[in-house]
Design a protein that fits this description.
about 650 residues; alpha/beta; seven-stranded parallel sheet; six-stranded parallel sheet
Length: about 650
């Protein structure tokens, strides 16, 4: 086994750190000892190093399963910048690109293979993985494998099947948001040899949590921003809300901008860059803002609207204060917020017949015939689809999520998509056209030599590779594709950036789509439970908020933070109580009095005086005689007359 000195050298050589963060080294040692390991680390806890370091300490390849394509690309770029070979395989790549990447993992010296979960079930991966020298299987966002998790994805269940193809390879499951119930389910689904949970502390000693119950959220938001120097994020639920709140802040003289999934990619990148560099102070955003954020000096995160779960809240709030300095996570709550959150339950679970109708419309929109589409990917512009079909976007998103949870299809996050083509004519008709259009003959022959299956489905193509093989320039290739498109010979989708739909199963007749009513009901109940926990957090006025979050994630050893609004209020009350007790003792030290006279002399609400007198009696600092007069007990009397 590699000793601690070696993994320390690896950490220093490639990442420049002198020491590991809490729990990182224990997790790495567990993996290097060959143990299946579930690592529960909070957001910003350095999860990636727990599989990257042990992989660098071993011969062979580390496979990393993750559903987040943006994060996948980011990690690959970072590793390559360190001269560590890494590749990514996801639904946005052409078949040839996937072939090359997997072949390099078999025959090359690739160290890290990042792969989207929906690719695990493909024959092309299963055949190759058995020939790879795999040293570690890392599962990021591991809560996605649990039906009790808030983001269950059936494609994750294939990981257990992959383990059978690479026996004796340990698995490292990583998540920042798993309750005790979800953690047990993760280990069972991943077929751990024995339970093994390593849990980092979910407490953030520098992060002050607070809840503000207000009528006017804008006024409270402005107060927070004006009182806390530095940059921040304001999370809202809807795109329109992001735009309105950002406009309000700009009107108040604050450098603010908004960010949501409806913005063009270039504009989103530009806005994020302006915020990261400090040109924009406050970013008002939907939950689309967060992935890939690497800004350590975020001083505050304000939730203008309530999240659906504590998992989401903890992750988003945790983007504040990653540099270790004091930062603030504030939830704004208005009287009707809970009612609004509960109304989301019905929106998240459309009637089953509507889900089936949306499935049918999506398949028609993508031109996928019944029996086709298995393990194929299609660019999906949800906004264009909803506009054409006159369906509310939220309802389509909810239907897609339920279809995904039932294993029919997967909606990927937004990515760079290659150009795609599919022939609209038969081979015989194409032959006739080629005879009549000799100038396109060479181009068509090149395409048919390079790509098969183009008559039955959309195929991803590489315009640069076609240019090299055909001898044309890339511009000429694109021009010829457009000509063939105009002639209705092909359907051509130029390269673009958008989400994609991956068909885990072939398209089925609508009547064959089965969503078990019991599972549907159970997931609806689980969402209701998560919302209730979120509501409990919002209404809590007794328990330390940091401790409440830690308890929720099973970190039962956490102590009160001392800096959240509950702890600060408790400390203030304690100081006030101590001052009141001292005054009572002073008043009664000079002259005994009844409780009524004492309360009248001190003034204000008499109840705190009554409570304080009772506590001082219990401590032996006061005494009451038969006539009801209360007097202070001198220290020498209390100690039996001894000094």
């Amino acid at each position: 086994m590699t000793d601690g000195t070696d993994i320390g050298k690896i950490l220093k050589r490639y990442w420049g750190f002198d020491s590991f963060r809490p729990m990182q080294e224990r997790i790495i040692r567990s993996v290097l000892d060959g143990h299946d390991t579930l690592a529960l680390l909070p957001t910003g806890g350095g999860k990636s190093l727990t599989y990257q370091v042990p992989a660098m300490a071993r011969e062979g390849l580390c496979i990393v399963v993750t559903p987040l394509i943006a994060l996948m690309k980011d990690q690959v770029d970072r590793l390559r910048s360190l001269n560590i070979r890494a590749v990514a395989v996801h639904s946005g790549l052409s078949q040839r690109q996937i072939d090359i990447a997997l072949d390099n993992c078999v025959y090359g010296d690739v160290k890290f293979l990042y792969i989207a979960p929906e690719r695990l079930g493909t024959d092309i991966f299963r055949l190759r993985v058995q020939r790879m020298n795999v040293c570690l299987l890392a599962v990021d966002e591991a809560h996605c494998i649990s039906q009790w998790g808030y983001d269950f994805r059936p494609s994750y269940l294939r990981i257990a099947e992959i383990r059978k193809l690479i026996p004796d390879v340990p698995v490292l499951a990583l998540t920042a948001s798993a309750t005790a119930r979800v953690a047990e389910d993760i280990m069972e689904r991943l077929e751990f040899g024995s339970p093994n949970i390593l849990r980092g502390s979910f407490a953030r000693s520098n992060l002050s949590y607070a809840v503000r119950h207000v009528e006017d959220k804008n006024e409270q938001l402005l107060r927070i921003i004006n009182n806390v120097p530095g940059s921040g994020i304001v999370y809202v639920r809807l795109r329109e809300g992001a735009e309105k709140v950002a406009a309000f802040l700009r009107d108040e003289g604050i450098e603010a901008d908004y960010y949501h999934g409806g913005l063009p990619n270039a504009e989103r990148a530009q806005r994020q860059e302006a915020w990261t560099c400090g040109r924009t102070r406050v970013m008002v955003a939907t939950n689309a803002f967060g992935m890939g954020i690497d800004k350590p000096d975020v001083r505050f995160v304000v939730h203008y609207t309530m999240c659906d779960s504590l998992e989401s809240y903890y992750q988003e709030a945790g983007r504040a204060g990653r540099d270790g300095r004091r930062s603030y996570a504030v939830l704004l709550v208005s009287p009707d917020d809970l009612q609004r959150v509960n109304s989301r339950i019905d929106n998240e679970f459309p009637p089953l017949d509507q889900i089936k109708q949306i499935y049918e419309k999506i398949c028609s929109y993508l031109c996928v015939a019944i029996g086709d589409g298995l393990q194929s990917s299609f660019v999906f512009n949800i906004h264009d689809f909803c506009a054409r079909e006159h369906i509310y976007t939220g309802k389509v998103q909810s239907a897609l999520k339920i279809l995904q949870q039932n294993g029919y299809l997967t909606l990927t996050d937004e990515m760079e998509n290659p150009a795609r083509i599919m022939f609209c004519v038969s081979r015989d008709d194409l032959y006739k056209i080629r005879v009549e259009r000799n100038d396109l003959d060479h181009f068509l022959r090149t395409i048919l030599r390079m790509y098969n299956g183009v008559f039955t489905e959309f195929r991803a193509i590489d315009e640069n590779e076609i240019a090299t093989v055909s001898g044309y320039t890339v511009e000429k290739v694109k021009e010829l594709f457009k000509r063939l498109w105009q002639m209705r010979i092909i359907r051509y989708i130029p390269s673009n950036r958008s989400p994609m739909i991956f068909f885990d199963e072939e398209r089925l007749p609508t009547e064959d789509i089965y969503i078990a009513p019991e599972t549907y009901r159970l997931r609806k109940e689980m969402l209701h439970e998560r919302i209730e926990k979120m509501a409990e957090y919002a209404s809590n006025d007794v328990e330390c908020r940091s401790r409440m979050l830690s308890d929720y994630f099973g970190d039962t050893g956490a102590e009160d933070c001392g800096i959240c609004d509950i702890c600060l209020a408790r400390r203030k009350r304690k100081r006030t109580d101590e001052a009141l007790c001292e005054r009572i003792c002073t008043e009664l030290g000079s002259r005994p009095a009844t409780i009524r006279d004492l309360a009248a002399k001190i003034g204000g609400d008499p109840q705190p005086v009554i409570d304080a007198v009772q506590r001082l009696h219990e401590e032996g600092r006061l005494a009451t005689d038969a006539s009801g007069l209360i007097s202070a007990v001198r220290q020498d009397e209390k100690n039996g007359g001894h000094a």
